[in-house]
Amino acid sequence: MYKKYLTILLLIIIALVPIFLPSDESRFDEWSRSLLCPVCQGETLYDSPSEYADDMRIILQEQIANGLNDDEIYEFWVTRYGEKIITNPIERNNELVLIPLFLILVFVLMFVRNLYVKK
Amino acid sequence: MIYNLGILLSWLSFALLTILFFTKNTYKTNLLVRINLFLQVALFCLLEIGLFLNDFSVSYIANYSAESTPPLYKFASLWGSLDGSILLWNLCLSIFMYIYLKYYKINDSNLDMRIFSFITIFFVGYTVFSSSPFAGCVELATIGCEKSTLIPFQNTLKSNLGRGPNPLLQNHPLMAIHPPMLYIGYVGMTLPFVAATSRLFKKDESNDWIEVAEKTTYIPWLFLTTGITLGAAWSYEVLGWGGYWAWDPVENVSFIPWLLATAFLHSSKVQKTNNTLLNWNYILVGLMFLSTIFGTFITRSGVLISVHAFSNGNIGTYLLVGLTLFSLLFIFIGSRNIDYFTNSKKITNWFGKSGFFILNNIILFSSALVIFIGTIFPLFYETLYDRQITIGRAYYDILVGPMLLLLLLLMIFSVKLTVKNIDINSWFKLNSNLLNLSLVIAIFMLINLNNTYFLVVTVATSLILILLTMKNMFIKFRMSSTNKTYWTGQIAHLGIAVFALGIVLNVTQSYSTEEEINSFQEFEFNNTTYFVYDSIQENKPEKTVIKLPISNEVKTKYTSLNIFRNSSQQAISSPAVFRSAINDIYITVKFIDEDSYKLIVRNNYGIFIMWVGLFISSISFIPRIKKRV
After folding, report:
1. Do residues B337 and B240 both lie within one domain?
2. Which uninterrupted H or E stretch holds B381?
3. So what's the pLDDT on residue B107?
4. Test the A interface: residue of B348, B366, B371, B589 with most A CBs within 10 Å
5. N- to C-terminal Cα distance for chain A?
6. For B209, which of B67, B128, B184, B550 is 20 to 30 Å away at the CA?
7. B546 has which bridge partners?
8. B-chain residues near A98 (CB < 8 A)
């Protein structure tokens, strides 16, 4: 019986781990992962070794050092390069997640109905 | 010579396949399939000979090979661009047609060979009517060939120099293995499609089709797994961006058939034991095949841009016609069997084998759906709203990540799955020690890491799965009676658990910095000192390589910049990788001056663990071999 309590205890500890030892991803990392380098076939600023991406990284670093908020950074890049530069457009376009979720729901309902209904 | 012969042989192959389509005679069928295979092998060899003889009167050779190209990459140039890769596609199809004839043919009907030859005619037809790697050059470009002809015995022009393959394709030997593996996997999906459609065409209400479809799916599944793995390894070793998977359209469309095939490998078992999911299995077999054609269409027609994009001609329309024809055939045969499909039994034990396999199918199919939507979303937005958007990692992280995690959780119960519903209490009693042990290991691992809930749950789940599978293997190994497909599954699951552990570490723990540095200086990274020497320039026939030696106290590695001749594309930088079991230090260089450099230094976690996992999954076929002998 004590084994059960041990498991529960361990599960509680493991659930607390992210709270006490959280991730320290910086805003710069986050943004450089979500901006596309426009000249390098689908690589983000974080990934791309090109000079173009270098220059963009420097600008991004300054923006974050100057304390621009997310909207201002977004505005800056999108007005210059268009919406295409943002690799995670889902934050500002919820439908990009909602449409697939809706389709999954439709699929699951059809699938389960197929198994239950006697024709 | 090569141009004329190549085109004539393609015509011959096309003609023979057409005869094969109409023939009813078994002897003729056997003969034609073999002759066609011989012709396709001959065409393959012919183009290879042309590549090695530098016959630049052939447009494809002038545009995608050069005299200075090293032999290995000359060999690989055959599939280095669209037309050549269709030739490889045809060869694979012909090999599979022969294998099908030999092992899986229906005894009393010719229908399956008819469907198979119909599909083959379609692809061979592309090289006859649309565009062929043997087309002769009739108008020269500055380097290479501008215009070509498909009609034999024309006056051809020979360019002096070849353009050479795409630089990315001649930087690592993996490029010679990765594409053929994927092709075999892709083309192999034809086998279950032909098996299912031809057997159901007769309205033969037996479950024979599911047996054959299942057996024939495993082969392409295995090649697809290996092919995708090698592609990821190539990307990591060559592209210098420190990653291996970018959710690029071409990667996505190789992953979709894999997910569907994996779903089918599970759901076919439900049909075999329970006689249920009949219609669903038929749909899966169809989608596996159609998704490979759709994938080729979407990435080769130029509608989407990606790292892998080839030149585009009229292949888009051609493939779209094929996609429509094959879909209609599939729907037609399906509709003939509505009565048979409605005989499907109900599921009774939702927490037993069938229930879990059904959940597995729901998750795998939903993942495929999400990836499919993500791939075509940009296209959709551009046509409908005139907005250009990019669907990047965040989309897949949010939607696919949790689903794959759920799948991992399901695998824990699949270690010992019974037809009856699972009893949680007795399961827990049996495995509590192991459960606690894995949780303790997980906690110790996590203490040193940057934690998110996704990481914590994945690490714990995969550790439980790894230990549980290994314990079970240890116990069952002594009992020889266990069936062989069970072992295949268990090995594949163990591999995936190890892989999941590696990838989650990689995704959440890796970081990078930049160092500006001069020759003969050192820098510190991750508690190790690295010393940078002076750069070395090497001139090779096909490229100039600038190498920068970097050493930690133990080893010296080179990071280099490859500048290819005759190529308009940018230089490629190859990384120096200091490998270890837990993390790779991955360094790429940019040359600023004669002796000053900018280094991008990455600490990539979990890479080795990932490769180990994928390797274990790819050797899951071993128990099946024993079965045959």
Report:
1. yes
2. helix B353-385
3. 80
4. B366
5. 48
6. B184
7. B537, B561
8. none
Does the pLDDT of residue A118 top 60, yes or no?
no
Q: Is the domain of B81 the same as that of B177?
A: no
Do B152 and B20 share a structural domain?
yes
pLDDT in tens, B560-583: 888 877 665 667 788 999 999 999
Q: Are B66 and B53 in contact (CB under 8 A)?
A: no
In a domain, A11, yes or no: no
A39 vs B361, more confident: B361
Q: For A18, which of B435, B456, B598 is closest by C-beta distance?
A: B456
What ranges in B477-552 are assigned the alpha helix state H? Answer: 484-509
User: How many Å lie between the alpha carbon of A32 and the closest alpha carbon of chain B?
Assistant: 12
Flag if B451 and A21 touch (Cβ within 8 Å).
Answer: yes
Boundaries of domain holding B73:
1-165
Mutant choice from B299, B390, B397 vs A, greatest count of A C-beta within 10 A: B390
Its domain, for residue A51, covers 25-87
Q: If you measure CA to CA, which chain B residue comes closest to A25?
A: B450
Question: Do A66 and A79 have their domain in common?
Answer: yes
A13 touches chain B (CB under 8 A): yes
What ipTM did this prediction achieve? 0.87
User: Using CB atoms, which residue from A24, A86, A100 is nearest to B399?
Assistant: A100
- Are B158 and B180 within one domain? no
**A50-67 pLDDT, tens digit each:** 778 888 888 988 888 888
Number of domains chain A is built from = 2
Our CA-based measurement puts residue B574 at a distance from the nearest CA of chain A, in whole angstroms, of 11
Q: What is the pLDDT of residue B566?
A: 63
**Together in a domain, A65 and A106:** no
* DSSP state at residue B573: E
**Is A9 part of any domain?**
no
User: Residue A24 and residue A18: Cα distance in Å, rounded?
Assistant: 11
CB contact under 8 A, B387 and A83: yes
Residue A115 and residue B393: Cβ atoms within 8 Å?
Answer: no
Segments in B301-343 forming alpha helices (H)? 315-336, 338-342
**Is residue A80 in a domain?**
yes
Give how far A118 is from chain B: nearest CA, Å: 8
| Per-residue pLDDT at A12 exceeds 80 | yes
CA distance A46 to chain B (A): 9
| Domain end point (choices B133, B150, B165) | B165
Place of tokens 């119909």: B118
Q: Which of A10, A88, A103 sits opposite B373 (nearest CB)?
A: A103
Q: Are residues A30 and A82 in the same domain?
A: yes
Give pLDDT, residue B613. Answer: 95
Q: Which residues of A touch B240 (CB under 8 A)?
A: 49
Cβ–Cβ < 8 Å for A78, A35: no
Residues of chain B with pLDDT under 70: 204-205, 302, 304-313, 478-482, 566-570, 626-629
Q: Which residue has the tokens 């894995």?
A: B438
Cross-strand partners of B149: B136
Of B377, B456, B570, nearest to A96 by CB-CB distance is B377
DSSP state of A37: -
Helix or strand (DSSP H, E) at B523: strand B521-525
Quick one: B256 and B344 in the same domain?
yes
Does B142 fall in a domain?
A: yes
Residues A69 and A96 in one domain: no
Query: Is the model more confident about B550 or about A41?
Result: B550
Q: Are residues B210 and B94 in the same domain?
A: no
- Contact flag B436-A93 (C-beta cutoff 8 Å): no
Question: What residues of chain B lie within 8 A of the CB of A107, using their CB?
Answer: 362, 365-366, 369
Is A97 found in the same domain as A79? no
Angle, vertex CA B129, rays to CA B128 and CA B133, nearest 5 = 55
Q: Are residues A78 and A104 in the same domain?
A: no
Across the interface, which of B241, B344, B435 has its CB nearest the CB of A49?
B241
What's residue B629's pLDDT?
40
Same domain, B263 and B347: yes
pLDDT at B508: 87
- Chain A CB contacts of B370 under 8 Å are 100, 104
Q: Do A89 and B389 touch (CB under 8 A)?
A: yes
Residue A52 is assigned to a structural domain of this protein: yes
**What is chain A's Cα-based Rg?**
22
Kindly state whether residues A33 and A83 are assigned to the same domain.
Answer: yes
Contact B379, A74 (CB under 8 A): no
